[in-house]
Amino acid sequence: MARAQVMSSFWRGVRDGIPFLMVIAPFGTLFGVIATEAGLNVFETLGFSVVVIAGAAQFTAIQLMSENTPVVVVLVSALAVNLRMAMYSASITPHLGPLPLWKRAFVAYFLVDQTYAGAALEYEKRPDMGLAEKFSYFMGIAMPICPPWYVFTLLGAYVGEAIPAELGLDFALPIAFIAMIAPALRTGAHRAAALTATLAALGCAWLPWNLGLIVAALAGMVVGAEVERRTQR
């Protein structure tokens, strides 16, 4: 019975992850196209996605690298974009933290925006899930998201400039983030952080090397933390 419940959780995760393919497909293809246009070969482009597996950070790094930005700035910018992963990790640790080390390694590697959003909502909706079921669900939702990311990156690298610009693939990133972030803005601290980061990013767009993203991320976190502190008091 327990094994059946674990497998049921896995396939439920797969089912819940399939709709994300509508974002992963154009987004991964677009990255493959942009990476090859920036000078990476097919192997380097695929390796980038396999090793980093963080779309927003990958796009940021490729853009800065194509502008001959200093390596330190590229790394700091990519890390700033991925600071949200630290918050994802802290949020999901109460659910998956007791797992063995090798399983936590899989969770850490596959912890991206879509897997976190889906898993967090599922754990909240089903508080009675056991540890094995939670891990099984997480791996299930990762299957239609992460491996296809590699496949579509490879497809984009091969297709390259044959994809017409009017397809508007560059809209995949903002649409994906809006769809995932908007429902999660449940508290005043969340909304304050999002609004502050948005305004700061727009106001600092003139800064070179995408430094406005770093400023916006830091400003959003500071304001969100302060609003939460005052609310709790």
From TrEMBL:
This protein's UniProt keywords: Cell membrane, Membrane, Transmembrane, Transmembrane helix, Transport
Gene Ontology terms: cellular component: plasma membrane
Domain of life: Bacteria
UniProt signal peptide: none
Membrane topology qualifier: Multi-pass membrane protein
UniProt keyword Repeat present: no
Protein localization: Cell membrane
GO terms classed as biological process: L-valine transmembrane transport
Segments traversing the membrane: 20-40, 46-64, 71-92, 135-160, 167-185, 205-225
Keyword Cell membrane recorded: yes
Listed Pfam families: AzlC
Family: Belongs to the AzlC family.
PANTHER family documented for this protein: INNER MEMBRANE PROTEIN YGAZ
The protein's name in its UniProt record: Inner membrane protein YgaZ
Organism: Tropicibacter naphthalenivorans
Gene giving rise to this polypeptide: ygaZ
